[in-house]
Design goal:
single chain; 122 residues; Hypothetical Protein Mth938, Chain: A; five-stranded mixed sheet; three-stranded antiparallel sheet; 8 strands; 24% helix; cytoplasm; MTH938-like_sf; AAMDC; NDUFAF3/AAMDC; Mth938 domain-containing protein
Amino acid sequence: MSSPEIASLSWGHMKVKGCSSSYKDCKVWPGGSRAWDWRETGTDHHPGVQPADLEEVLQKGVATLVIGRGMNEALQVPSSTVDFVRQRGVELIVLQTEKAITEYNNLVGQGAKVGGIFHSTC
């Protein structure tokens, strides 16, 4: 099962290939995607992405996880979250969202077992 490509990105809007709905923020993994609702884990720009935000994607058995920090990189990724991912033996790539989606789609094109979480605004 392959990871879906991100078909388009604009401020506050992302479209995942093969999915009829669009997302403001999203999670993607081999075989699926869904909205990333920060309210589920109490995430905010500071302190940023929490391990609980990543658990669902990591459970899909990804080898690489890409995090998009927003168009202006306002979303933080604390060192505790980085450590959480690396302790599971998963490669972590953290970039500004446009760059993150480019990298994610490149990995998808290579057939990598990749997942991602992406923030589409600030």
